[in-house]
Amino acid sequence: MTPITLKDIELARETLKVEIDTTPLFHSRSCSDLIGTDVFLKLENQQKTGSFKIRGAFNKIASLTEAEKSVGVVAASAGNHAQGVALAASLAGATSHIVMPKNSPTIKIQSTQAYGAQVTLHGEIYDEAFKYAFKLAQERGQTFIHPYKDPKVIAGQGTIGLELLDEIHNLDSIVVPIGGGGLISGVGLAIKTLRPSCKVYGVVAKQASGMKNLFHQEKVDHSLSFPSIADGISVKEPSLEMYNTYIKQYVDDVVAVDEDEIAEALVFLLERTKHVVEGSGAVTLAAVARKKWDLGKKCALVVSGGNIDLNLVSKVIERGLSKNGRLARVYLAVEDRPGTLTRITKAMGENDANILDIYHDRLSPNLRLRETVLNILFEAKGPEHLKSVLESLEQAGGRIIR
Hints:
Blueprint: H1 6-16, E1 25-27, H2 29-35, E2 38-43, H3 53-62, H4 66-71, E3 73-76, H5 80-92, E4 96-100, H6 106-114, E5 118-121, H7 126-140, E6 143-144, H8 151-167, E7 173-177, H9 182-194, E8 199-205, H10 210-215, H11 240-250, E9 253-257, H12 259-273, H13 279-290, E10 298-303, H14 310-323, E11 327-335, H15 340-350, E12 354-361, E13 371-379, H16 383-395, E14 399-400
Parallel strand pairs: 2-10, 3-4, 3-6, 4-5, 7-8, 7-10, 8-9
Antiparallel strand pairs: 1-2, 11-13, 11-14, 12-13
């Protein structure tokens, strides 16, 4: 893979301005107060297809000859790259064939088809879909659009860095999600070339922390299970080529965030900034909220996408609220006799806890004779209020099992 230069990113910007949006830069007071410095959100969740991926895909497809476009392009993806390639191909007058794993969410399959692509479902995991798509491209003489290991794709993603520096001339730091590494490679190159003093930080999901391990020369932990809330950056094996060519040179640090941190950040963005963000886009806020970095006075967070599966939203919200002490489930062993439930609910009411769900379980193996378990789901106002409610339950005669 031939390394790109700033000139390649500048040329990509000229190519993209015909069809691709310059996304909003939003100064978030809520995020600024949380972090303690001025925080700006680069809202790629408002890009065409709901993700930054169309930048690289369009730049790549636009570079093809008319003959190559007429033959068509092929890609493999379970989400954002699929939609980006599909729409980019349609805009450039090319046909596209996207291979997606069989278990891909129906909405993502339908969205990819709606953007004009032919979709084939193959394999149980992304790796199987990738191998099949690459084989198809070779057999048919079509161009394979790699999600990150392609100079044109990297240059397209790097245009985000140019847009940021146009609007924030004294940017001190930028935080970027890392999956395969194409986004942070392009953005890092643009930022470090034009403003070397600006810190470039990368974030991976703990469930797929290979690039973080590579960056810090740590052993890769293959025991972590999949999938992650941040499915868009869950790349199982880090690319040594991307690391050696770009990330080692242009990135100052890489950290991992866990599922609870991502969920809490996603809820914060939804509730406080009113932006619908997918897990992969929320990892940047999750990182700056927990990690000790030199962010300077002005920090930009790349919100890489907003294509979250609606079936997952309620689960993520519940997890995020639980993480910050605003939603809790308690298993309370109490005496199995009349009046007990009234006493327990009265104690919760007096402490302003809102009960969402409650039911009995008389078959738990942890029970003593003449005890029952109350499984209570309730809302609290935060960690201190939650602690107070739990204490009141014990004072009312309950025994917290878990």
